Amino acid sequence: MTIKLKKRLTNLAFLLPALLLFGTMVVLPFISGAKISFTDWDGFSEVYNFVGMKNYLKIFKDPTIGEPIKNSLFFTAVTVIGNNLFGLLLAMALKKNTRVNRIFRTFVFMPFIISLVLTGFIWSYIYSDVFYELLGIKSLLGNKKTVMLGICIMGMWRDIGYAMLIYLAGLNAISDTYYEAAEIDGAGPFTKFRYVTLPMIAPAMTINITLFLGWGLKVFDYAMTVTHGGPGRASETFALYVYNYTFPYNKAGYGQAAAIVMMAAIVVITGIVTFFLRRREVDL
């Protein structure tokens, strides 16, 4: 046995537990869900009637599906822009490795270690008991026009610290010689940011945009724990739409079909965005 083969077998041995876990928890349930999506199973009975592509065709004919799609896209757009913008600004403000900055970094990042469900409960309390009871400000969650904005604020409060951390790593990897050369050429702060900082943190930007894009398109926890899709269906996201049909409405076959369509859409959208962002990195 050659050294190269031994190294490959060793690497495979380390990967095997993760591959087994991934196969058990992701691949097998996905295959089972794909089978169910071609049936009219209600989620409880032992009867599985094959209906072919009926569930998938129904998705594109359902007049109520527009609202969940719109809500998911709105949440994604706001959080992707907000997390990256404020995350980058905080990273630049806290870039210097001082004791005070390290304390502020910790406070900004702390919400990210809180679960999505707990974040929803915390902000539900803030909106109702703090803003309304103490300040007299009506809860954003009680108005159809502002409920999604309220949910977006929750998401950004939790995730901005993560974006900041990624941008800090990118900023700290930039050599000071680039800035010194730019200053010699007469570049001001804005010019240095545009032609030095932004190009050099392009990989960090790719990571953040791709991650928040994927997380946003499949957002479920906030709407489920705080509003249950209300008021009306004003905060029902596509993931919550899938959940409602799979469980409360007892249409697991249709719910599984919608879940697969959602997964395919996320894979395609994030794949295209990542492709163009990676090309931007190469062209710099």
From TrEMBL:
The chain crosses the membrane at residues 12-31, 73-94, 106-127, 147-174, 195-217, 254-277. SUPFAM superfamilies: MetI-like. Pfam families: BPD_transp_1. Its main location: membrane. It is found in: Cell membrane. Residues 69-273 form the ABC transmembrane type-1 domain. GO terms for biological process: transmembrane transport. PANTHER family: ABC TRANSPORTER PERMEASE PROTEIN, INNER MEMBRANE ABC TRANSPORTER PERMEASE PROTEIN YCJO. This is Raffinose/stachyose/melibiose transport system permease protein. It comes from Murimonas intestini.
